Amino acid sequence: MDFGLSEEQELIRDSFQGTLSRICELDVVRQTAEAGAPLDENVWGELCQLGMAGLLIDEDYGGAGLGLLEAAVVAEELGRRVAPVPFVASAVMAPLAIGLGGDEDQRRDWLPGMADGSLRVGVAVSEIAAGAREDAGVTAGNGVLSGRALFVLDAAGAQGYVVADNSGGMHLVKADAGGLEQIGLKTIDRTRAISELSFENTPAEPLRQGEGVLQTIIDAGRVMLAADSLGAGEVMLQQAVDYAADRKQFGRPIASFQAVKHMCAEMASELQPCRALVWHGAYTMQHEPAELSLAAAFAKSHVDEVGRFVARTATEVHGGMGFTDLMGLHYWFKRLGVNRAYLGSPERVRAEAARLQGFTD
User: Fold this and answer.
1) What is the pTM of this model?
2) What tens digit of pLDDT does each residue of 273-332 get?
3) What average pLDDT does the segment 28-56 reach?
4) CA dist 68 to 49, 153, 170, 180, 287, Å?
5) 250 phi and psi, to 5 degrees?
6) Alpha-carbon distance 84 to 40, whole Å?
7) Of 39, 113, 284, 342, which has the fewest Cβ atoms less than 10 A away?
């Protein structure tokens, strides 16, 4: 069996890779992060012209009608560039929630604008996917929501939100709805907009989803985070190798030192199997949906652990320079750290995988 990208998928990868190399250099990332902006509008606009926002939206609603594997290919390229644009929530989780769980009117109202990038939608599911903190949680009743949702991804500048309540129901909320307050949260990763949503009798439209849709969008989000981490980890490895080849001590490149060789080789060997896990997780959504949750759990938990190892080791190869803003290594380091925590830590996700396989209750 051939396990690789099709010609069309390679074309998608090459298109995004080439565009991002042109429009999303490190200086662009740095300027966006330092400005505290929710995204870089130029990068967002050009990527939407490539069809990024509508990858998973059916052609009937203006999208490309592609699958999760194509989205994973794009996510990996975004991770390589730590691109300061919304994707995991607004281009993957939210379109899937509305496409799978919405009725025809909801699809017609939301999906066309999401497909062309004019309508951005954040996703609030952290209390279900990663566990509630403090008094966070959302209750639903009589068409309104009350409570708090933390760590809402792609929330800043969004025109609407997909919100999960404490019982697992999903709702659509417009950004200008009464009783809704969006509060920006500071995280170590300043290339992403993460917020808190506060609801006080806020009007909401329930998604009439079929069974399992909430878990499906969480699983899809986990695969996308794993793909993003894979891209970020590979860049950190390459940066470490390049730096070791240039940096000299005792009259020769540090890449010639056995200890440094071993560090780089170990990073490469740890990263190598991650792509298969990510691609398999994405593949299962269309072809083996019953295996999606387990495959997504394997992909995210393993890539999270490898990502932390690579982030630490690549920084060590750089020595003191690895901590400076001049090198910019910290942007990938922090992206990997947030990816690890979002939608469930490796420990939590592995516990879910154990339950799915019947190892625990």
Assistant:
1) 0.96
2) 999 999 999 999 999 999 999 999 999 999 999 999 999 999 999 998 888 888 899 999
3) 94
4) 19, 19, 21, 32, 11
5) 55, 30
6) 6
7) 113
The answer to whether the beta carbons of residues 189 and 78 sit under 8 Å apart is no
Long-range contacts from 318-324, C-beta under 8 angstroms, 24+ separation: 318/239, 318/240, 318/243, 319/247, 321/243
Q: How far apart are alpha carbons 313 and 210 in whole angstroms?
A: 44
- Do domains 7-116 and 213-356 share one topology? The answer is no
CATH fold of 213-356: Butyryl-CoA Dehydrogenase, subunit A; domain 3 (1.20.140)
> What is the enclosing helix (H) or strand (E) of 223?
helix 213-246
Q: Which CATH class is domain 7-116?
A: mainly alpha
What is the C-alpha radius of gyration for the chain, rounded to an integer number of angstroms? 20
| 102, 109 contact by CB (below 8 A) | no
pLDDT of residue 210: 67
**Tokens standing for 175?**
């950004």
Residue 124 bridge partners (DSSP): 163
Query: Residue 72 has which token pair?
Result: 């994973």
CATH number of 121-206: 2.40.110.10
Beta strand segments in 229-334, E? 248-249, 252-253
Q: Where are the domains of the chain?
A: 7-116, 121-206, 213-356
d(CA 233, CA 212): 31
Mean pLDDT score across all residues of the chain: 94
Rounded to 5 degrees, what angle do the CA atoms 171, 119, 57 make?
75
Q: Which H or E element spans position 107?
A: helix 104-116
